[in-house]
Amino acid sequence: MRAFIALKRNYKLANYETINFIANYHQVNPMSPITDSWQEDYIITNGVKLHYVTQGEGKLMLMLHGFPEFWYSWRHQIPEFASDYKVVALDLRGYNDSDKPKDVSAYQITELVNDIKGVIQGLGYESCILVGHDWGGMIAWYVAYTYPQLVDKLIVMNIPHPAKFAEALRRNPQQLLRSWYIFFFQLPLLPELLFQWDDYRLIASSFIDMAIDKSAFSEADLNAYKDAAAKRGAMTAMLNYYRNVFQGIFKQHRWDVLPIPTLLIWGENDTALGKELTYNTNDYVPNLQIRYIPNCSHWVQQEQPQLVNQYMREFLAKDEG
């Protein structure tokens, strides 16, 4: 089995099926949270085919991952909440087994938002609990503002309110330095070559180097992320999110008050995004809870899944019944 996985990794068999990966991962890691009750499927919306993994029945809980991840970053949350919800962990456009449009403009924030609208409605729901981390969290903020009727509750992890982020890049030199990679990713080809070098070594180090608890990521976890990034067209597609930021999320925008109940979970040791980005978020979101997790990096739901799940449960239970 190990030889088979190594062979797949070395030759970057980018078109292997997610269901095969699930089976292989579970055999190598019998204590993993992956179970036979997980299902994968596709949905066509907004001109693209999007892949997702799902478990459970009931109200929709839609989970949106960040960079450089895919649905797998929610592996600790899917089984936890499947007892009460229909949990859907999406591969965003450009990632893993979802379509990867070639045009840079295909990754504008308006397209990403409309993908999520289409997924919610295409699954037969009028609204959902929307959960997002990193880029998935930024998309979730925009969905909540653009289509508030689609979001009953919003849970965002380690990504600030868009207004706070844009303000920090204009006025906070320290955050500007932390965000150097955004400017580097604007270059053509060079970022792709850097990520692809040495069997996608930078993908793995993105997790390990930032993590406080490095044991949170097994070799199989890191290989899963590398294999997803190695699929044809994926690396450029993933970087194209950043190549639209100055025409999209950092463009001047008027932000009204968001009435949706919102939980912001923040790993305090995020080296890319400073904790100060969360301060005064309630100026924009009055119905806000913030939960800080010390000794935890940007990869909060993977590094401290028990605490994240607990805070999500407490937030979701509020005002119910």
TrEMBL record:
Pfam families per record: Abhydrolase_1 (PF00561)
GO molecular function, one term: hydrolase activity
Keywords assigned: Hydrolase
Gene3D superfamilies on file: alpha/beta hydrolase (3.40.50.1820)
Family annotation (SUPFAM superfamilies): alpha/beta-Hydrolases
Residue span(s) of domain AB hydrolase-1: 60-303
The keyword Metal-binding is assigned to this record: no
Name assigned to this protein: Hydrolase, alpha/beta fold family, putative
Organism: Coleofasciculus chthonoplastes PCC 7420
